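Re: [help] complex structure
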Amino acid sequence: SINSCMEEWEALSNEYRSLEKLHQLYHAKLEEVNSLQQKCTKGISHQRYRLNIIKNSLRRLEKNMSESSQGDSERNALLQTDLIRRKAQLYEMENILPKPSGRYLKIILGGINVSILDKNEKFRYKDEYEKFKLVMSLLALFISLFNCLTNVRTMDVVHMFLLVWYYCTLTIRESILKVNGSRMKGWWRAHHFISTVLAGVMLIWPVGECYYAFRTQFMAFNVYISFVQYLQFMYQRGCLYRLKCLGQSHNMDITVEGFQSWMWRGLSFLLPFLFIGYAWEFYHAYTLYYLASHPSADWHVGTLSMLFLVLFLGNSLTTAATIPQKIKE
Amino acid sequence: SINSCMEEWEALSNEYRSLEKLHQLYHAKLEEVNSLQQKCTKGISHQRYRLNIIKNSLRRLEKNMSESSQGDSERNALLQTDLIRRKAQLYEMENILPKPSGRYLKIILGGINVSILDKNEKFRYKDEYEKFKLVMSLLALFISLFNCLTNVRTMDVVHMFLLVWYYCTLTIRESILKVNGSRMKGWWRAHHFISTVLAGVMLIWPVGECYYAFRTQFMAFNVYISFVQYLQFMYQRGCLYRLKCLGQSHNMDITVEGFQSWMWRGLSFLLPFLFIGYAWEFYHAYTLYYLASHPSADWHVGTLSMLFLVLFLGNSLTTAATIPQKIKE
Ligand SMILES: CC(C)(COP(=O)(O)OP(=O)(O)OC[C@H]1O[C@@H](n2cnc3c(N)ncnc32)[C@H](O)[C@@H]1OP(=O)(O)O)[C@@H](O)C(=O)NCCC(=O)NCCS
Ligand SMILES: CC(C)(COP(=O)(O)OP(=O)(O)OC[C@H]1O[C@@H](n2cnc3c(N)ncnc32)[C@H](O)[C@@H]1OP(=O)(O)O)[C@@H](O)C(=O)NCCC(=O)NCCS
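Output below.
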């Protein structure tokens, strides 16, 4: 009856009043946090500024140091390590402070804040990114297998549209990862920009003799790349989970040495496949370079040849460069 | 000298210690805020759940009310308004709580939190969105003017690429606006999805007789649309700023009546231009429908015709529907 409804309502209203109080408390704390956030950010950049001044004057001192005492140079060395440690501490502090987005994200998303202020959330975000890549490369695998075996123009178009969209999305997600402190090398993001353009040019390449001369080899390459991306996923994900375990001090299942040996095994398994892929990119560049002189060739052929060459060079140099870097670590 | 560096370092270290304390405080408060946030969100959804139960039992009561007393139906009516007011209060509370993204944003950006928890920031974000549209439509104006006067295939391609990218970016930004409580109608977001596809199909349409039969009219349409978008920008931005002033109670420059009269003047200036644009969309659909039976016509022609028809219908119905809705307000 209406009376029981009224009673229900009264009970609910009481609950509402306590919710209201909670909400007011929340609002107050939120503003406090915002102002603390600004103070911390300012404090950190002030520290950075003055650290740099000290560093510069130390550098100037060092130059005129040759004649000065042993003690001075020892103090200098001590101060230098202090400076480095302080920088690391500031970096650590920044982990839970919001960071501004880069120019690309600002254009795409506008001035929205994409910082993740929680370690576990950061991990989850990266994990989700790896999974997204996996799902998409499986999808690409099926489509390119289908395209290898058949020759339907619509499916080619769908495939290329998917690649444009996929690489475009990757660049956005990777920029977000970058804001959140990933040490991903600049080239991999550039790689995905270039791949977006490449897929775009493939998309508008008018079908004709040249197109069909290149199509088979390109489709086979796509199948191969999807497979390599699967291997890469297994490796990157392994690294991610093992690094997370390493970060949790109470977890003793894994040691730094254990991680390193796992990483090297994974890497030495993966690298040959990667370099075969890069060789293939070079081969595409070469094939297209010859096709470009064909009478029916459009501007697309030469452009694609250039893009594949750039991908080949960037990928092989960057991947090659990670090996000595990892040995040093 | 090294001594002065040491002194500098000492002074800076003192500052660092207080920064460290501030940072610890911040960290603690941040976690507090997060847990309060979760509690509030839970409380709100619990309120919603029980409000719905009460509402349903009231509805059931109403049906059997005919024979019951006058007093009961009065109490019922009072309770109904209470329910509505409570819903508005809960909605107000949610303004400073993070909201989950929709499926589209989750796919593009991953599980990042795009809520803006500050009224001024929300305003700034919307303002920036309008400015972004303005800059892009000016750019599109120049390119389409250029394309009207010349006929360079590369520029056509650049134009279409720009449109694909632009509409794609708009859908992302609008989804973010939606999460942050914009009352933008679903159609406008759908409109930008469809426009993305439309520009994509234009992009891959092989040049030929049909393409050139349609090109001039399409380029002129683009010039016109850029101009209309400029008018629309002036209107939307005027609404935005005036609504902001209305929201600040200490600002007496503007009244609700003043806003309404301004809005109606703006709208009645804008609407004829909009409907001319929609008529043009219908005309495109019609032209393409006839071109589709041309012997050299590809699938692109029919598809484009369909897409323009959908745009025409959706735009005119949605825009027409806003007029009675605004009169009621
Ligand atoms: C060579 C390679 C295996 C090294 O991986 P790695 O051991 O993770 O390398 P690093 O230690 O330098 O990684 C640093 C960071 O960059 C990220 N990263 C490395 N390569 C990446 C790639 N290709 N794409 C995205 N992120 C990458 C890592 O995940 C790590 O992120 P984190 O800071 O958030 O933890 C890896 O770069 C790779 O797979 N490259 C080949 C990619 C390729 O060529 N693709 C085209 C298909 S042939
Ligand atoms: C008809 C029109 C002028 C009404 O605008 P309005 O007075 O702002 O309409 P409403 O009051 O319903 O707006 C509600 C919300 O939707 C937003 N909105 C309305 N139309 C929008 C559009 N076309 N694109 C994006 N957002 C829009 C408003 O900014 C407002 O946002 P807010 O809740 O964040 O303040 C507007 O919808 C319009 O310009 N439509 C034409 C768009 C068009 O046809 N473009 C294609 C080129 S011809």
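The two ends of chain A are 75 Å apart (CA to CA).
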